[in-house]
Amino acid sequence: MRIGELAKRLGVATSKLRFLEAHGLIRPARRLASGYRDYDDSAIETLQIILQAQSFGFTLEEISRSFVETRQHGLRCDYIIKLLTDKLQELDRHIEQTRTLRARLAGAVAEFEARRVHNQRPDVRTRQHGLLKEERLPAANARVLQTAGAVGKPLKRAQRLP
Q: What is the pLDDT of residues 18-47, one digit of tens each?
């Protein structure tokens, strides 16, 4: 089958197939007299494995190494389980790093909100479209309420405008 048909069946660009072939992930297709690539059905299975592995977050380098391993020792369930378990642990580490980063960012936002409160005196403000008007509060109360707001509690008393 020609490269365009294969690409269409798998939902990928022909350039991706050429790239994977150039990097040795799929066997080079035989060439027709016209110069067109001609892939056999085994290319479909190989490409489906590559695409699924990429969807699980495996890099092309990791996929290539696993192909070398399976060519040498055959396709073994214990090997696949180890690859998937390792990828899952890597994902868990990334999730933990992301949670840590999120907490740091939330802390930075709270710190800057607190600084903003101390650098500006409370004032009457109107939200867009005049839906919410904040009342002017005594400076001491505003500081306490604003600090509480940095950790998710209400910032100021508010009243609805007509």
A: 999 998 898 878 888 888 888 888 889 999
Q: Where are the alpha helices (DSSP H) in 13-161?
A: 14-22, 41-55, 60-73, 77-119, 139-149
CATH number, position 29:
1.10.1660.10
DSSP character at residue 35: S
pLDDT in tens, 90-134: 999 999 999 999 999 999 888 888 877 777 544 444 444 444 444
Q: Does residue 120 fall inside a structural domain? A: yes
Looking at the domain assignment, is residue 30 inside a domain?
Answer: yes
Where in the sequence is the domain holding 21, given as residue range(s)? 3-73
Q: How many CB atoms lie within 10 A of CB 84?
A: 13
